[in-house]
Amino acid sequence: VRITAEQLVGVATDIDGTLLELAGTGAGRAGDRTGVLRRRLASTDVRTVVDGVAALVDDLLWARPDLEERMVGIGVTVGGHVDWRNGSVVHSPNLHWREVPLASQLQAAIGYQVQIENDVNALAVAEQAFGDRMGMESTDVRDFAVVTVDRDGVGAGFVLNDEPYRGVNGLVGEFGHTPLQADGAICRCGKRGCLETQAGADVIVNHIRDAGRNIDGLDAAARLTRQGDAVARTAFEHAGVAFGRGLATLLNLLNLGLVIIHTEAAVHDERTPYRSAATRSLHEHAFSTAADSCRIIWRVRTDELEGRGAASMGLQL
Ligand SMILES: [Zn+2]
Question: I need a surface site. Which of 19, 24, 37, 138 has the fewest CB within 10 A?
Fold first, then answer.
C-alpha cells in the first residue's frame, strides 16, 4: 500500500512482482483489471490513514481470498523520513507527520506483519528485486539510483554494492531538500532554497499561475506549452535546468552508472523542454565524466510501479 497526501494505492503482487488481478470484486468494492485499488483520503490524520489502509487491505483480501493463506507480509510506503528499524515515520512534510509509530499501529489494525519504508527507497528495492517487471533492461547493475520528480516533490533511493542503502537511520535520498539557493523560496520542509523549490513538478504549475494563467495542473501546463505559450515553456525549462544541476551534484558525489527517473507524463513529454533542459544542464555542471558514464532512463510514474515498490517491502519481512 502506498500512502500519499491524497490517496491510498493498493496492489497485490506475486513474489516475482507480477501484479495479481483482483477478480471477484463485488458492488461498491470493485477493483479494476489492472490489479490496482485506489481510495481517496478525506484527511491525513493518522487515525484516518490507519483505518483507510486497514480497509484497503480488507478489500484486497476480499478480492483475492486465496491470498490469506500465502501472504508473506504487507509493505507500506510513505514519503519523507521513515526509520525502517523501529517502523516509525520520523518526519513526513507531505502528510504533516512527526514521530508516528506507523508500523505498530497498522499491525494492530490489520493483524499482519507490516514493513514500512520511504516510497522512493522502496522503488529502488523494487527495481532491484523485480527489475524486468519494472522495465529495467539489465538486472546486473550493482549500483544505481531511482529519482522521482512528481507532484510530491523530488526524491531519490539508492542501491549500492547490490544492497539497498538506508543511511544510519533511514534518512537517505532526500535529494529534493539539497540546499541550492541561500535566498530561495521556503520549501515544504521549512528550510529555504531546496532543489525541490526549483525543480519540482508543482513549481512549474505555480510559475505559470503566478504569471496570471489559470491552469488546473501539470497536464494543462504541458498543453499550454504545446500550444506555444512562452511562459509555460520557460517554467518547464527553468525547472529542468535546476533538476539537471541537482542531478550533476548526485553524479559528482556517487559516480553512478545508472539513474532511473520516475516522473509525471507532462514532465516526460518531449514536447515540453524539461528533459532536454535537464540533460543539457547536467552535462554543463557534471565533473569530468560523471554525466557521460551514466545511463539515464526516464520513465512515466504509475500507481502500478509505485504499488510494486510498496509490495517489495512486504518481501523484506
Ligand atoms: Zn526542503
Answer: 138
